[in-house]
Each structure stands twice: as C-alpha cells, then as structure tokens.
Amino acid sequence: MKRRPLLAGNWKMHTTVLDACHLAADIAKSCSGLGDRDVLLAPPFTVLNQVAHMLAESGIYLAAQNVCWEAQGAFTGEISPLMVLDAGGVAAIVGHSERRQIFHEDDVLINKRVRGALAFGLMPIFCVGETLDEREAGETFTVVERQIRAGLAGVVPGDMEHVILAYEPVWAIGTGKTASKEQAQEVHAFIRNLIVKMYEKNIADQIRILYGGSVKPDNIDALMAQEDIDGALVGGAALDVESFGRIIHFQEI
Ligand code: PEP
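# phosphoenolpyruvate complex -> structure
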C-alpha cells in the first residue's frame, strides 16, 4: 500500500526575511500543478509569518522547527503551538537529532513536545534515528524502538492520524552520506511493524514515514520507490530551489 508522498524542507537556521520570501516564492512556483503529493516547508520561527503569506494558495504546508507543549508562559526561548498556528503553521518538527545532540533534548522532553503539538492541533513530524556508533554496535533497531516508544508514550490511537514519523540516521544528516535505499527501507519497515505492535495495522498502514539524511536530486527517486518510504525530510538541498524542485518532482523508479 502506498501513501500520499510528503516532501518536507527543513531550512534549519538559515534565511533572513528577504531570503526566505524569495525561496518560498520560487518553491511555490516550482510546485504548481503537483496534485499527487504534499510539500511542506519548515523555515525558522522568525520568518514563519512572512513565508505563510508567500505560500498562500500554493497548497504548500508550513511547519515550525520545534514547539513547546504549553500555550504560553515563562518558557524563555520557546514557541507555543498557538504561536505556530497563529503564524500559519500546521505542523512542527520534533526530536530532530540536532535538538537531541546539540541541545540535549531527551526522550521525555520530546514526548512532551509531541503530545503538546497534538493537543493544540499541530501535526508533529517526529524524528528518530541512530548515531554511527549505535549503528556500528548493531543497536539501530533498539535505539529507534526506544525513541519511538518514549516519544509516543501517551499518544492515543485517535491522534496517530496526525503524527508524521521521520527516520533520520544521524550519521547521514548533513554529511553527504545517505543510507542506501535498502538500509533505509529496512528501518522504515521495522518502524511500521513497531506501530502495528503499539497500535494496530490500520494505523501503521496509514502513517507516513519520511526518510531524512542527505536526500538529494540523485537519490530521491530510488528512496521513494521503497515500499515503506513515504517522503523525505530534506535539509541542505531544501535551500536550493533547483535541488528541492527536483526532489519534489521525484519519479518513482
Ligand atoms: C535534516 O535536517 O533533517 C536533514 C536530513 O539534513 P540534510 O538533508 O542536510 O542531511
């Protein structure tokens, strides 16, 4: 069973207002006429609102790169789900490996973000993935299972239709090393089976699992042809309209 593809661009800590508006407008142009797939952009918080205006009527979805679980309050440096919605966002990346590694966000904190996003009607794009050491120690499945079980703790079956998963092996992010299509498919299939065990087959069949880690124009087609890969979370290549445009227009081979 194939699910509707989702191609998501994570702009990380890049773009001023002017850069962001140009990039969003160019991406919107290159997406026109694509009816069979979804496209989503996750720019920095500071430009969410302007990018939302640039994307109006393009059909492209907007996401934040992280989100707090509270509506408001004394949480310096955080952005609430209501603020993301107010700026035009419908989703938020949660648990990105850069948050886990550089900012020491752990499974418990990430779970609060996942549940917080859902509680306010935002779709979490919940990222998991092993480091190179973990892969080499044969711990990939153990790590991914721990991250998923902890991150989805307390998420009820009825909310799972709003959850998007992203498998992003840490060793492939920003390194130019992509997991082979076989390596990626193997983990995606494992994740889908885990969702069957934790929830039910119907939920596992519907949930979209994105692959992220040095996705480029020259590997997107092969990745998207895999049974359990439903889309891509793209970092570096999402900042270049030509590359991202090609990724959006992938052809399954
Ligand atoms: C990411 O930021 O989620 C990512 C996968 O980055 P890159 O495509 O640059 O590896």
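# post-check
Strands lie at 6-10, 38-42, 61-64, 91-94, 123-128, 164-167, 208-212, 231-234.
The chain has a mean pLDDT of 96.
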